[in-house]
Design brief:
single chain; 373 residues; alpha/beta; Rossmann fold; 7-stranded mixed sheet; two-stranded antiparallel ribbon; 12 helices; 9 strands
């Protein structure tokens, strides 16, 4: 009896080994075929031991750097990037391991990713301060970047971004993702961590389809979520007062498709340009809010006491930026959705944890956002 039991286990073990090897071969061949059939829309920039995919369109300054959420790629910005490229240079990129980028070292934490982004900007020749746009988990990355490289940050736009004081639960399944992705199980069942391909811009779907089932993408997403608490700790420890515009767009649904995110980016760019013009004229525009110039926003309140709109201090003059802002308000859609839920000061824990409470379909309300990274 014992001999037959051992034989059964041996047969099952051999079957599992053959199945795993077959699955790994299937995964490798399918990934190679997809990447060969659909080359990256941008170019791969060598930042040392590995390369990052950078996709830039448009011209102008400051450049806008688009960083997508967990499991996503540069294709996620297919609706937003063309609109931003109409008035400045717009660059979406794939974090190491995501999209078309080569895998990077572990752990995939906010500080490591911010350091890689800084090197990417240097190697790609993107000079001067940039407007950083971070969606979801990438909000951690861009905030650490702004703290560690203040001379390179012209503004922050946080789209439905994570907050370090949220409860960050790590799914138990995350630790099995490397194995399941390598042997093709996730591909076999059509599991993808990014946005639904049907929800992306038609012109970008082919790029998302070619990279959705890369083992490196699965493994990187798992690595990022496994180390999410370490990233939150890095954000918390790197907090500093900023003198740049910080705009938050906590919208529901698919944040990179909704216009509020693009409007926030536009406002951040115009604010930077207006601020530069103000410095040239050697005069101050507006008054700093309480606690110094850490807010970059001023709130207008109607007689009922409700917040009516929020304007960047640097755009309160009579120049083009101010006229554009007033025109946007007249069209009935606010530049961004900001409420006490987007207060970035960790000390305001009761408000800072209510992330994502605003909806793009409802009128935006404004409140002063503490501009700390």
């Amino acid at each position: 009896m014992w001999r037959w039991t051992m034989r059964i286990f041996a047969v099952l073990g051999a079957f599992l080994i053959v199945a795993a090897l077959s699955g790994a071969t299937y995964q490798w061949l399918a990934t190679r075929k997809e990447l060969a059939a659909t080359p990256p829309p941008g170019h791969l920039v060598d930042i040392g031991a590995y390369r990052l995919h950078l996709w830039c369109t448009g011209d102008g300054a400051p450049a806008v750097i688009l960083d997508t959420g967990l499991g996503g790629s540069s294709a996620d910005w297919g609706f937003v990037q063309p609109d931003v490229a109409r008035f400045t240079r717009a660059c979406s990129y794939d974090r190491a391991g995501m999209g078309y980028s080569d895998p990077g070292p572990s752990p995939r934490t906010a500080r490591r990713i911010a350091s890689e982004l800084a090197e990417l900007l240097v190697r790609s020749g993107i000079g001067g301060p940039v407007v950083l746009v971070g969606a979801s988990i990438a909000g951690f990355d861009v905030r650490v970047f702004a703290s560690d490289h203040p001379e390179r940050a012209a503004g922050l736009v946080l789209v439905d971004a994570f907050h370090e004081d949220q409860a960050h639960e790590v799914p138990q399944m995350a630790r099995f993702v490397p194995l399941l992705s390598t042997i093709g199980v996730l591909r076999l069942f059509g599991v993808s961590f990014g946005q639904r391909i049907e929800s992306l811009a038609p012109a970008a779907r082919q790029f998302a389809r070619a990279t959705s089932f890369r083992p490196a993408g699965y493994q990187t997403a798992a690595d990022e979520i496994i180390h999410i608490r370490q990233s939150a700790s890095e954000v918390r420890s790197s907090r500093r007062k900023l003198t740049i515009p910080v705009l938050a767009s906590p919208v529901a649904g698919e944040p990179t498709r909704i216009g509020d995110g693009c409007n926030a980016i536009s406002l951040a760019v115009r604010t930077r340009m207006s601020d530069d013009r103000s410095r040239v004229r050697s005069r101050r525009v507006g008054r700093p809010t309480r606690g110094g110039n850490e807010s970059a926003f001023r709130q207008e309140t109607d007689r009922s006491g409700s917040a009516r709109s929020t304007q960047p201090v640097a755009a309160l003059g009579s120049g083009p930026a101010d006229r554009d802002h007033r025109e946007t308000r007249r069209r009935g859609s606010e530049i961004f959705c900001a409420s006490p839920s987007v207060t970035l000061d960790a000390r305001g824990t009761s408000d800072s944890r209510k992330v994502g409470s605003c909806h793009a379909s409802s009128p935006s309300v404004g409140s002063r956002a503490t501009a700390t990274a």
